[in-house]
Write a structure and sequence with these properties.
Chain lengths: 148, 92
């Protein structure tokens, strides 16, 4: 835990190109708002972040996904805000899990060709940031700018 | 979650949705338990939309296992200790 507001970005499968760019953009935006940002996700998603930002200018802290989930369940860490990247059913499962195990304010970043359908599956309270895009990050960036 | 993948498991459903897994367990198994996300089983914290439905089939448990890139799998694994924990109401 730190004295700063802290935020977690939970990345899904990186098969859709917008995820890495938007994660770097969002991380930078949160850091500039004095958030202590941690990023978790699949091994490939994390490696994409590391290669895209080799000096850690935008994303400094990265944690293995399973370790992160375990630490939150066991109350060894938690966050003020959690942003879950969703473009498939598994993403919804991770969002629901975070709802159940964390006290963070929850943000669902939903994208891809099924964005609206996936967003409609979210039946609990959270901020939904939804854009039907897979390659072009601008629609999602605009939605994020409206919320943050 | 490498631990489960190294175990002797049977895949009942693959690349499916969490909802389909829940419906399959509820339809096909008489002994059912509901647990919260983060419930620990086989040294793994379960991921999913609550309630996570686990079926008991003899000395095996049947439960959803989420992989971010491949969707949800319904797995069947021998687990007497896990069944004892479920029967004891831990985490339910």
């Amino acid at each position: 835990m730190t004295g700063l507001n802290n935020a977690l970005l939970l990345l899904g499968c990186p098969e859709l190109p917008v995820q890495t760019g938007i994660a770097l953009y969002l991380s930078n935006k949160l850091v500039r708002k004095d958030f202590d940002v941690t990023i978790t996700g699949t091994k490939s998603a994390i490696n994409l972040m590391r290669v895209s930002d080799p000096e850690g200018n935008y994303a400094k802290k990265m944690v293995d996904l399973d370790l992160c989930i375990g630490n939150i369940v066991e109350k060894r860490m938690d966050f003020d805000r959690c942003f879950v990247f969703i473009h498939n059913d598994a993403g919804i499962s991770y969002l629901a899990t975070m709802r159940g195990i964390s006290d963070a304010d929850l943000f669902a970043i939903v994208f891809g060709s099924d964005a609206e359908m996936l967003a409609s599956m979210i039946e609990f309270e959270c901020e939904k940031i939804v854009a039907r895009t897979a390659h072009n990050p601008i629609p999602l960036k605009k939605k994020i700018d409206e919320v943050l | 979650m490498g631990c489960i993948e190294e175990m002797d498991y049977e895949i009942i459903l693959r690349n499916t949705s969490f909802k389909e897994c829940r419906e399959f367990v509820e339809k096909n198994f008489k002994e059912i338990y509901h647990v919260k996300p983060g419930y620990k089983m086989f040294d793994v914290y379960l991921i999913g939309v609550p309630p996570i439905t686990i079926g008991v089939d003899g000395d095996h448990v049947v439960f959803p296992y989420v992989k971010p890139c491949h969707g949800t799998f319904l797995l069947r694994i021998r687990g007497e200790d896990e069944i004892a924990s479920l029967k004891g109401g831990e985490g339910i």
